[in-house]
Amino acid sequence: MSGARTGTGPVTDPDLEPVAGVLTAVREQQPLVHCLTATVSMALVADGLLAAGARPMMTETLAEAPTVTTLADALSVNLGTLSTDAIEGIPATVAVAVAERRPWVLDPTAIGIAPVRTPLARQLVASRPAVVRGNASEILALAGAGTGGRGADSATAPTAAAGAAAQIVERTGGAVAVSGPVDLILDADRRARVHRGAALLTRVTGTGCLLGALTAACTAVEPDPFRAALAATTWMDLAGELAAARATGPGSFRMHLLDALNEVGR
């Protein structure tokens, strides 16, 4: 089930097999991911990237973030707990990533009625992220077709956001990953649904932020944004299943999730 090794050899998983090479490339190349992410999830994002085999770097100030992005292999932009520093630093950092041809991922967390992050997220779409990753309510709000969910929670199923996701794809030329009970990944020509994961992924703060950063790590080693997004989503879902099978609750799930990110696909 996990794509992890046992004493008799690797366990194959039909959902993992198409993207297993991306996981291997992340572990071999150890991409440096610059994360402009929510303060409440920084520790999980950093630990999760390290567990997966990538390397995190985090700074959001205008004075430093654009410059250090030149050292990174990919950029992850998450609007979860938007600070004054981030409001100033994010557009300039994205501009440098674009100029330096670094792939970048937009995670428009909790947009909708929020008066600052919502127009910022829509502005950033014009800079053509390789992947936009969010829940259905966020994707609808980003496309101007909804008012968002309740904070970071979605009030809409991923399939209901398929049309909005397609509109975003037209604007970015990349891929969109819509998270939910059944994840939806699409680009201009392809659609995939991932029927995996665990309910406990929604009971720990920052798992969505981590998925955005993991997606950025995958874009650093996989030039096809659709395949990178599919790989990251599958990786997180299978790790969630492994962790849930071992956990007794949200606290132990968080610990086991890090172990599982290291284990999936080996």
Description:
With 266 residues, the protein is α/β, with parallel strands linked by helices. It has a single domain (5-263), classed as UDP-N-acetylmuramoyl-L-alanine:D-glutamate ligase. Helix content is 45%, strand content 15%. It has ten helices and ten strands. The strands form two sheets. Strands 4-3-5-6-7-8-9-10 form an eight-stranded mixed sheet, with helices on both faces. Strands 1-2 form a two-stranded antiparallel ribbon. The chain is globular, with a radius of gyration of 17 Å.
**Considering DSSP H and I runs of 4 or more, what fraction of the residues is helical?**
40-55%
**Under the CATH scheme, which architecture would be assigned?**
3-Layer(aba) Sandwich
Number of strands: 10
Query: How many helical stretches?
Result: 10
How many domains make up the 3D coordinates?
1
Distance between the termini: 12 Å
Note the run of SSEs as H and E.
EEHEHEHEHEHEHHEEEHHH
In a few lines, what is going on in this structure?
With 266 residues, the protein is of the alpha/beta class. The protein has helices spanning 20-29, 42-52, 65-69, 84-99, 117-125, 136-142, 162-172, 207-221, 225-246, 250-263, and strands spanning 5-6, 9-10, 32-36, 55-57, 74-78, 104-107, 131-135, 175-179, 183-186, 191-194. The radius of gyration is 17 Å and the shape is globular.
Topology record:
Layout: E1 5-6, E2 9-10, H1 20-29, E3 32-36, H2 42-52, E4 55-57, H3 65-69, E5 74-78, H4 84-99, E6 104-107, H5 117-125, E7 131-135, H6 136-142, H7 162-172, E8 175-179, E9 183-186, E10 191-194, H8 207-221, H9 225-246, H10 250-263
Parallel strand pairs: 3-4, 3-5, 5-6, 6-7, 7-8
Antiparallel strand pairs: 1-2, 8-9, 9-10
